[in-house]
Amino acid sequence: NAGVTQTPKFQVLKTGQSMTLQCAQDMNHEYMSWYRQDPGMGLRLIHYSVGAGITDQGEVPNGYNVSRSTTEDFPLRLLSAAPSQTSVYFCASSYSKLAPETQYFGPGTRLLVL
Amino acid sequence: GENVEQHPSTLSVQEGDSAVIKCTYSDSASNYFPWYKQELGKGPQLIIDIRSNVGEKKDQRIAVTLNKTAKHFSLHITETQPEDSAVYFCAASTNAGGTSYGKLTFGQGTILTVHP
Fold first, then answer.
1. Chain A contact for B1, CB < 8 A?
2. What's the whole-number average pLDDT of chain A?
């Protein structure tokens, strides 16, 4: 098992550009989520999904879109990048959609928006 | 929604000493409290968790205690070693109910440094 994989590892964008952060898991987990990590603020939930075709907003969803067409993949799209979106992004998955316990995190994507 | 406060933000100890990190939560419906360890350049990894029907749980050198009445929980690391140096996050979760799905809310993190 590769677990949770994320690509790219690093990315530099200019303000206004769009991009997609990829996330995949091979554990057949129903629950997948995206967090951003900023200094002194912990991990904040952006969007999450409890299964293919089902997504919902987290704490900080503005400026991000998600879709879940398969159980394995959960991409995060930045529509028009802003400097405030400079952060480290983590994708995570969990077996149960009812209680997202024991979340497995990917290695993260470091994003810099100039 | 849930709010989780974590203290201290940084903690420095000598090898062999104990380390304690404390978290408080706001939602009395929260019933699952995990602790994650994040090493430099990596994603967080679950190290221990506790459910609301248990007051304490131990796993070798680490333990977690929960006080539901006061709505706080703590991570205890005994006999600390340099490899314990990392960022530690607490979190709180409620199960799904009605039309809502379970979500984890994280604390702000504690940078633990263990000096040899």
1. yes
2. 93
